[in-house]
Design a protein that fits this description.
It contains 4 helices and 24 strands. The chain has helices spanning 2-18, 94-129, 135-167, 214-227; strands at 34-39, 41-44, 48-57, 60-64, 69-70, 81-82, 87-90, 170-172, 177-179, 189-190, 196-201, 206-213, 231-236, 248-256, 262-269, 281-288, 293-298, 303-304, 309-314, 320-324, 326-331, 334-339, 346-350, 362-365. The two termini are 77 Å apart. 20% of the residues are buried.
Length: 375
Amino acid sequence: MQERRLWALALLGVALATAPGVPAGAQQGAPPPAVLVQPAELKPIAEQAEFIGRAAAVDKVELRARVKGFLGPRKFSDGDLVKEGQILFTIEPEPYQATVDQKIAQRDAAKAALTNAELQLHRAEELLRSKTGTQVTYDQRLSEQLQAKAQLEDASAQLRDAQIQRSYTQIKSPIAGRVGRAAVSPGNIVGPDSGVLATVVSENPIRILFSITQRELLEARRDTSASGDGLIVRLRLADGSIYEGKGKLDFIDVTADAKTDGQMVRAVFDNKQGLLTDGQTVRVIVEGEKVPTVVAVPQAAVALDQTGSYLFIVNDKNVAEQRRVKTGVARDGLIAITEGLKAGEKVIIQGQQRVRPGMVVAPTEAPAAAPAKKQ
């Protein structure tokens, strides 16, 4: 008799636990699972694309010797900022100065010869006019004067060439920028075949080059032409941080790479702090200048199964509901929900592993997050 009573009580408990109108998880003695919830909010999240790019200096000059000689004292330290026209290397100037002095003497001799030829021509002209001279003599003096004039021009040209060769003994920076490591030490013989002595690169502004596919380029052109909005470019550095300045696209290559179907795009950035270096690899983020406002939730709230993306919301009766959603852009820990969720609905962001649809839960609202800094 006692056993029958126990069986009856057990069956009654099962019936109550599974009876209609009793939410799952509300069995006697089982407290509802605790979950952390957060209202879905309207957030500005920009559509963006990310590419691998490389920094390239606007100006880059390789310094080389144009004349042969012993390299003199270095006029800079490796890594210095240099000005346009600053002397960085010298090559022994004495042999070239001697050549200049020689050419000056030859030019002066040619000047004297021309002066004498012009005097002889003038005398021959006076004699011919007074009919005491001959035409043959005049013609000879005229030829000598022309030859002397040509010799003076040749001597002057040789002097200019010698002066140019002497100027090459001072190797100057043609641009303002930062000079790299010197490749040759003073005292070595250098010449046109010695290779690069040092490299000077301009630092500010700096260019970023990256390649995009034809499909991405067409989509970007359609989007910007349809909305009237431009594009802005940002950079993600090697440590994951976002570069402070924003860049602007200033050039799209006129040809596409037949092997990769990519087209080179260039953006320009200010580089006053010198964080970007020629040849450096960066992540390039391209996004619209106008940022749309969308319904957004933490990425941790969204799960994925064979059917697609879903999340759990909690209604006003603290009952969990599964909601199928469509997602959009993910950024800074948030993900845009394009369909299936409204702003203000409470989304479970922690503890959803213990939740089933229709289960009563014990929600706790998450503290409001601090506003993100504007990039």
